Every structure is written in C-alpha cells, then in structure tokens.
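Hi again,

Forgot to attach this to my earlier email, sorry! This is the prediction with manganese (II) ion bound. I've pasted everything inline since the attachment limit keeps bouncing my files.
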Amino acid sequence: MEIHHGRHHAAYVRNLNAQIEKFPELTGLSIEAIQKNISKFNTAVRNNGGGHYNHSIFWLLMAPEGKRGEPSVELESAIKAEFGSFEDFKKIFAKEGLARFGSGWAWLIVTPERKLKICSTPNQDNPLMDIPEIEHGTPILCIDLWEHAYYLKYQNKRDEYIDNWWKVVNWNEVSRRFKEAMK
Ligand code: MN
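Structure tokens for the complex follow:
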C-alpha cells in the first residue's frame, strides 16, 4: 500500500501537474470537473487525471479496524433491492472485477436515475468521465484492479485480493457517498 500510494499514485499527481503547467485552463478546475470534461483534454490528462481521482477515492474507501462501520440502513436496503442480497452484491462486484481484462477498476455507482449499478472501466477511466464507452454515474465504491495494486502480495491471484479487500472496506465512507449521491 505504501508503494502504491507513495510511488504509483504520486506519479499520476506529478504527471497531472506537468499537464496543468502546459494547459492553464486546467488550473481552475476541481479534480471532479476535470473528469466530467475529460473529452476536451489529451490522453495524458485522461490517464493521470483519472489516476489521481480514482486513487483519491480508493484510499478513503478503506479504513483500519474499528473505523470501517457498517453499510447504512438506506444503502443496505438499496443493495438488497438491486442485487437480491448483500452476498449476491459482493459476488457480482467480484465477478465484474475478475472479468475486467488487463488494468482497470470495478465500481459501484449511483446512476443519473438514482439506481445502484456495478460496472468496470479500463485503465484509469472512471464513471464521471464524459466519454461514451463507459457507464456513467457517481462512484460510491471502487477497487483498483491494476496488478500494481496486488501483485506484491497476491501475485496473479486477483480473486484472493478482491476477497481480502472486502475486509478493509470503509462502509462509513461508502454510506456517506451513497447519501450524497442520492440527494
Ligand atoms: Mn493503483
């Protein structure tokens, strides 16, 4: 995690900052606004801006023991309504993560219709981006599927990484993001 945060995520931040120096119009935009307007910018902004945004959420979506909480009543009932049961939700999410070929992310989003949906994106793309080839919505949970996220500990076993990742999910933060997205 330290290498992931201190080297991989740091590189996205460094490279995004280098783009901001070249394109002053990026300066006044929040990181969310950059995602929502990503079609206006080059591939370096898409990859590194996406990389910075995705990792920024990812770190907050994990927490140490005692600080993770439980899904809120509202989130749990929305999950059950959409996916049948909490266990089924975890299975479908893990399946989406395993099915994503190569590098990318799996997401739980709130769609513009205020529905929960599971999806995945390639590379550092995310559901906020104004690009046609992805599902759109507000991310409330995500997992990094790049090998750099798990290779040192799990080698090629992405399934074991996802299984163990559930144990550190910060449900307080997922619930907070769900509430915010449903407003
Ligand atoms: Mn990563």
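The chain has a mean pLDDT of 97. The chain has two domains: 2-60, 73-181.

That should be everything now.

G.
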